[in-house]
Amino acid sequence: MRTRVLLMTIAMTLTAVSVHANPSSLSLEEYCETLLSLKQGELVRLQNGETGVEGYALFGTEPPAYLLTGDPWVDQLVSTASRIEVLNEEIASLEYVLSQLKHATGDGPSTSSAAEGFDQACALLCAADEEFIRSLYHCITHREPAAQEVEAQVGRLQNGTLRRNMVQYFFASPEYVEQNHDGVRFITDACQAIYGRQPSDAETSAWPRTDRSFIVIDMLDSPEHLAATQDCAALWRRDAASVPTLPYADDLSSGLANWDVSKVKPQEADGALLWQSGNHLPVSWRYPIPMEDVVIEFDGWCEKNGLGVMWINEESGGYFALLGGWFNTRSCSDGRIRGFGLPAEQREYVDGAHIQLGEWQHYRLVRSGDWLDFYVDGTRIIHREILHRYEGQGTLTFASYGSVVGIDNLRIYRATAQEGSAADGVLQAGNRSS
């Protein structure tokens, strides 16, 4: 979506050239500043609860489910959450255009000159959290971070995110990806961030032509990185002996160490994990789970919209199930999901209000044999046959849309032959809804 917003902003800016051509009119820079101010004002009004601002968000924070498509560019007409998401992208793009205009007129530093100031920056691999995060901004995004950015990322580290996951997050961030660096610059950034040193001539002249995310993982697992971080190894990785194995169980009493919350701002409430999911912003379980013959149990809480559960393999294929979706008007499942918010391939729906919003309930998801079943408080809502099967393991992820959602008391274990379509979904002792 960022590319689409940037193109739209550039188009608006080019349209303003006619304004700039008239000496009595606003300058091009003034035009962009005025437009930016209007967008920021609209954002504040929406955040204060207004609806119908500038013809958008006509139904506010609770639009009718049948009007929502999952595309924020469409949904912004009726949904406050979607309009805010688009506005934030528009504002970021306008700020970028303004920075380039100011550079062209000599009123501000250029993006390139700012980046050059961090060309030689290296990550402080074993420094305190704040200095480590600041060094990642320097050597990966090539800029000085804002105080609130540092605070947010330090918070994620202190909530259990490993430093290796933070490095992966920085390299996968839209900000870095959209800088579109060539291979030499990428390898330079990776050596500075992962090894804490400048690259050799051999490394920059023979950089691998493969997926960059895999290169980052290989470097993080390399003997050089392990040696460079041996004095702070616990901050970067967990010992094999400390990594849990199936069956998994987490009541979150020890914090968020078992969860990847790098894409959200987590809230801890009474020992549970809560977050504002926005447009399918996910949290993920850190450890692989079986793709087949598995039971996933948890206590869930949903403010306005249901909580989706997805587990997919390395080829981005897997299963999805959602109770209380479309603002608790229907539930669904998919046997060939590719990711949250992506087109459905084998989607089936069950109409009805299947969950209790604002209350903790116990969820039980079973993939056993040829069946996929989903229960809430012992009542089976989804029951479908899926004949194909996936090999190996996958990543378990939870997300919603336009709602605060919560998780507690996660349990993952192997399904038995008696579970699946014949299961009665009896509640387990000790969960929040019992």
Largest sheet: 8 strands, antiparallel
Shape: globular
The percent of residues in helical segments reads 25-40%
Strands, count: 16
From the alpha carbons, calculate the radius of gyration and give it in angstroms.
24 Å
CATH T-level topology of the largest domain: Jelly Rolls
CATH architecture of the largest domain: Sandwich
First-residue to last-residue Cα separation: 42 Å
Overview of the molecule:
This protein has 16 helices and 16 strands. The protein is an alpha+beta fold. It has 3 domains: 2-108, no CATH class; 115-236, serine acetyltransferase, domain 1 (Orthogonal Bundle), CATH 1.10.3130; 248-414, Exo-inulinase, domain 1 (Jelly Rolls, Sandwich). Helix 9 (163-172) packs antiparallel against helix 13.
Helix and strand topology:
Layout lengths: L1 H14 L1 H5 L6 H20 L24 H4 L4 H25 L6 H6 L12 H13 L5 H12 L4 H10 L1 H4 L5 H13 L5 H5 L6 H9 L2 H6 L4 H4 L11 E3 L8 E2 L6 E3 L2 E5 L6 E3 L3 E2 L3 E9 L4 E6 L5 E7 H4 L1 E8 L9 E5 L9 E8 L2 E6 L2 E7 L7 E7 L4 E11 L20
Antiparallel strand pairs: 1-16, 2-5, 3-4, 4-16, 5-15, 6-15, 7-12, 7-16, 8-9, 8-15, 9-10, 10-11, 12-13, 13-14
